[in-house]
Amino acid sequence: MGWGIYLRDHTNKDGKNDLFYRITSKDGSFKKTIPNCKVEPKYFDKKRFTVSAKSNNQIILNDTLNKTTTLLKEGWNLYESGSYNWEELIAHINGAKTNLDLLTFINTVIKTENTENIYKGVKDVYGAAKKVLVRDISFVDLNFNITNKLIMDWKGRVRSATVETYKYHWGLIVNTAYERKLTTYRYEPIKKWKTKKDKTTIKGNPYVETIKPEDFLNAIDRCNNLMHINGLASWLLSFCLRGMYYTDFCDIHTKSMDIIFEHPR
User: Fold this and answer.
1) Tell me, what's the pLDDT at 147?
2) Predicted structure pTM score
3) Helix locations, 134-180, DSSP H
4) How far is CA 235 from CA 35, 150, 239, 246, in A?
5) CB atoms within 10 A of CB 86
6) S-S: 55 plus which of 1, 43, 125, 229, CB 3.0-4.6 Å?
7) 17-25 β-sheet, strand order
8) Nearest CA among 16, 10, 53, 13 for reference residue 37
9) What would the pLDDT profile of 55-69 be if each residue is shown by its tens digit?
């Protein structure tokens, strides 16, 4: 079970043999000759899948072998993890693109292995990460540099409690992919990613600071267009409704209230 690179039995007139790879699993066996890869048997390292420096064209041959082993490792790891079936594995080895992407991985593997609340949190952090990167996210983005960029951005914009939630679920995505050998980076928190506790009221609720009246009046003078005026009007409505969150506007149309006007006599 697994894969390997081997020498063909036939030796040509130059004393060289073709190299081929074989993949064997419970679902079948597949082998294929590696194009333009011939070597004298004495120069082929069967354990490392490399060619000795004494061989002609060893640089080109080793480059070809390195690309081949990388493709075989990736395909086999995806197959072992259950992300690929046998046909998809063979297609991958032959250079075909597959439909596997990070969002599919989240909606299948992570959703299956976790509770509905955790799955929802993973979908939320995926969306939050897309907003920061302003593009779709792939397995390539599951690395330290992207993780650092996301967390530092979140620390500067959202509440500490939200950052902690984002970190937990982003780490879950990264490490689930790492365990299946789909990425080489393992998520481990570092000191600079720590957040300060949010200020709370006496009752333990989040402490919210608001602007002063003079700040709002100064903002009026700085309005340059209708969008600015509408923004201030929206903020004022929110403030008058005792600090209603902007997301609540999405549900305001579902509310109803009966108002009865009686003509004074």
Assistant:
1) 94
2) 0.47
3) 144-157, 160-179
4) 66, 28, 6, 9
5) 14
6) 43
7) 2-11, 17-25, 28-39
8) 16
9) 888 899 999 999 899
Task: Note whether 44 and 64 are within 8 A (CB).
Answer: no
Residue (of 84, 67, 79, 58) closest to 21 by Cα position: 67
Give me the amino acid identity at 158. V
Q: For residues 229 and 36, what is the distance between their CA atoms, to the nearest angstrom?
A: 69
Residue type for position 264: P
Q: Domain map of the chain by residue range? A: 2-93, 102-193, 213-254
Which tokens is 216 given? 């709002």
Other CB atoms closer than 10 Å to residue 171's CB: what's the count? 17
Lookup: tokens for 5: 């690179």
Q: 72, 3 in Cβ contact below 8 A?
A: yes
Do residues 34 and 68 lie in contact, with contact meaning Cβ atoms separated by under 8 Å? yes
95's tokens? 């250079």
